[in-house]
Write a structure and sequence with these properties.
globular; single chain; 10-stranded mixed sheet; 8-stranded mixed sheet; alpha+beta
Length: 502
């Protein structure tokens, strides 16, 4: 018997698992694939208030997101970092006075404490103007944050497990039905085919784009209503500019597109925001979406890009509350929690919508609604000031950590040490413990990925496949050759289930 069972290993499922386990509740999380295997690893990688949501008067959403922005920067400084955005003024679109007003509100709405305020810039003299076409002479700069989205999910799961939660990846919920005062949930291990069953006092449907489908086909409960599926696609190209600021570009269709420095040598461009007309299990960036993103940035950059320049693309689907808006980009990004079950019945809580930025608040609100129905005691909210694994340092201590890691592993290239610090924070040194030379790290798979790190990811972060390691736990899929990728796959296959402990 568990206090809470959670279906879905994305940001909301893992965030709730961490919060609940830290309050002393017994938790089981079942994810049919890998953690962050779908939408939660397909975001624009931003922790932000959502500047454009001000146009829809979504002040509550923006305020809450802005408050959470600095909370996440404090508890996960290794995977969340400040990022400066440049918004070139495009004549004929939003007027300059409206942009200035929006940025003023953005600066003051969320009680900003750490990040610098916005200001106007002369693009003829500012470094951000160099890659742009000559017609863009005025612009504005403001602050938000970048995040490694998949690692944010995984670290929440790691901390949840450390606090007693059972995280079961590659485990599918076949059926869930009420049985007197609890849920009976049938599970299948998708790797072995083994069937099992558990009971839980409360059930959380955190399956994201599958939220309505899961309830309709797996859970005996009322249908989840008013869900709109919106697809967002992104492309990655070789680095388009040398400075470390990002761009936010206005488009004539009222959508905005970001161009963001990515993994040092690349630029991430997105997103598209279109109604999803594909199977949610098989979404990808379409040729039309890729062409759209190229056209969007080509209106601003002096050097044009083409679909042939794309080195990687990805797409994700969000479940949003259907508020009747005609355009997908206008649909609300706020979260909705639907609680199912009469008083005395075990509750089902379904999560619709939400932003990765506000996942921690979603978890707190989910537990606020669930706890009175569970009939068990629990602690108070606690996640606001508690670092995620590897994040127990102030952002100003990054240079000290870098020196410590250099002292511990001088045999590693500086770029590799920097990646390890950005990925694991204070945990990086422990992972390299007792290694005095490169050979102590085991086989080198390419791009600074050694056997020691791979075994660490298998043992502590539920990684099983090459894609788990190269695209979610790290982003080294951008750097390994196809042959190196295959060699990693072959090595993982030969190791079998004992790879982590060998």
């Amino acid at each position: 018997m568990y206090d809470i069972a959670i279906i879905g290993g994305g940001i909301h499922g893992c965030g709730i698992a961490r919060d609940a386990a830290g309050r002393g509740l017994s938790v089981l999380l079942a994810e049919k694939g890998d953690l962050a295997g779908a939408t939660s690893s397909a975001s624009t990688k931003l922790i932000h208030g959502g500047l454009r949501y001000l146009e829809h008067y979504a002040f509550h959403l923006v305020r809450e997101a802005l408050r959470e922005r600095e909370v996440l920067l404090a508890i996960a400084p290794h995977i969340v970092r400040p990022l400066r955005f440049v918004l070139p003024h495009h004549r004929g679109l939003r007027p300059a006075w409206l942009i200035r007003l929006g940025l003023f509100i953005y600066d003051h709405l969320g009680g900003r404490e750490v990040l610098p305020s916005s200001y106007a810039i002369d693009l003829r003299r500012h470094a951000a103007g160099a890659p742009l076409k000559a017609g863009f002479t005025r612009g504005f700069a403001y602050s938000d944050c970048w995040v490694d989205d998949a690692r944010l999910v995984v670290l929440n799961a790691v901390d949840a497990a450390a606090r007693g939660a059972l995280i079961r990846t590659h485990t599918e919920v076949l059926a869930a039905r009420r049985n007197r005062d609890c849920w009976r949930i049938d599970l299948r291990d998708n790797l072995t085919g083994r069937l099992s069953a558990i009971e839980a006092r409360g059930l959380v449907n955190a399956t994201g784009a599958w939220v309505a489908h899961t309830t309709a086909h797996r859970i005996e409960a009322h249908a989840v209503a008013r869900v709109r599926l919106v697809k967002g696609s992104h492309i990655v190209v070789r680095k388009l500019f040398e400075h470390d600021s990002a761009y936010i570009f206005q488009n004539r269709d009222r959508r905005i597109v970001f161009a963001i420095p990515y993994e040092k040598d690349f630029t991430l461009i997105g997103t598209t925001d279109v109604d999803c007309e594909e199977e949610t299990d098989r979404v990808s960036a379409s040729s039309d979406e890729i062409a759209y993103l190229c056209r969007a940035v080509n209106e601003y950059f002096a050097s044009a890009i083409a679909p042939s320049d794309v080195v990687w693309s990805y797409a994700g689907v969000r479940s949003l509350q259907d508020d009747g808006k005609a355009a997908a980009q206008d649909a609300t990004r706020d979260f909705v929690l639907q609680l199912d079950g009469k008083p005395g019945e075990p509750p089902l809580l379904s999560i619709i919508g939400g932003k990765i930025t506000t996942y921690r608040r979603v978890a707190e609100e989910a537990l606020r609604q669930l706890l009175p129905r569970l009939g068990c005691s629990a602690g108070a909210p606690w996640t606001r000031g508690t670092p995620l694994p590897g994040g127990g340092f102030a952002s100003g201590d990054r240079q000290r950590l870098a020196r410590d890691l250099e002292d511990a592993a001088p045999f590693l290239d500086a770029d590799v040490r920097d990646r390890l610090l950005r990925t694991y924070g204070t945990s990086a040194r422990a992972m390299l413990a007792n290694a005095a030379r490169k050979e102590d790290l085991g086989r080198h798979f390419g791009a600074g990925l050694y056997e020691r790190e791979v075994r660490h990811l298998i043992k502590t972060e539920w990684a099983m496949t090459a894609d788990d390691i190269l695209w979610r736990r790290t982003k080294l899929g951008l750097r390994l050759t196809q042959d190196e990728h295959h060699r990693l796959e072959e090595w993982l296959h030969r190791q079998g289930p004992g790879a982590a402990s060998a």
